[in-house]
From TrEMBL:
The lineage of its organism: Eukaryota, Metazoa, Chordata, Craniata, Vertebrata. Belongs to the UPF0587 family. It comes from Seriola lalandi dorsalis. This is CXXC motif containing zinc binding protein. GO terms for molecular function: zinc ion binding. InterPro entries: CXXC_Zn-binding_euk.
Length: 160
């Protein structure tokens, strides 16, 4: 089993504590079979609340799937205690937001979508429903009368 870290990078404007909200947050990934190299075209998502038993009583994982090309059974598990917020101090640099434990799979792409939250850097104003699918998000913080935003969202995977 191999651990991969999803590193998040964005430019933050007057916000901090950007994070996935709740155990039902959907991590949309493209996964490569470590056996044959197959990468399905469609996005797949995993959540902390979903748990599937592994064959042979080896525990459980967030997702177990059989490769359509080589029929190998692979799994990926979200390591819940590794989920970290992306803060104003992290702006414009890569920071590991979550780690995945993989057996036979390798994450190769991530698509941020709905379910992120943040708060005003100065005001603490909560912004609970942020969708990053367009790689940018903007709003207005009434408390401090400033625009807020998350821009140029990108990512990379690293082996941990």
């Amino acid at each position: 089993m191999v651990k991969f870290g999803l590193q998040f990078k964005a430019t933050l404007e007057n916000v901090t504590n950007v994070r996935p909200l709740g155990d039902d947050f959907r991590w949309f990934l493209k996964l490569k079979c470590g056996n044959c190299g197959e990468i399905p075209d469609k996005w797949q998502y995993i959540t902390l609340v979903e748990s599937v038993p592994l064959k042979g009583g080896r525990g459980s994982a967030s997702m177990v799937q059989k490769c359509k090309l080589c029929s190998r059974e692979n799994s990926i598990d979200i390591l819940g205690d590794t989920i970290k917020a992306y803060n104003a101090d992290d702006s414009e640099s890569f920071k590991t937001m979550v780690q995945f434990e993989c057996r036979g799979l390798e994450p190769v792409d991530f698509q941020p979508q709905a379910g992120f939250a943040a708060e005003g850097a100065e005001s603490g104003t909560p912004f609970p429903e942020i969708n990053l699918q367009e790689k940018d998000w903007t709003d207005y913080d009434e408390k401090v009368r400033e625009s807020v935003g998350i821009y140029e969202v990108t990512h990379q995977f690293i082996k941990c």
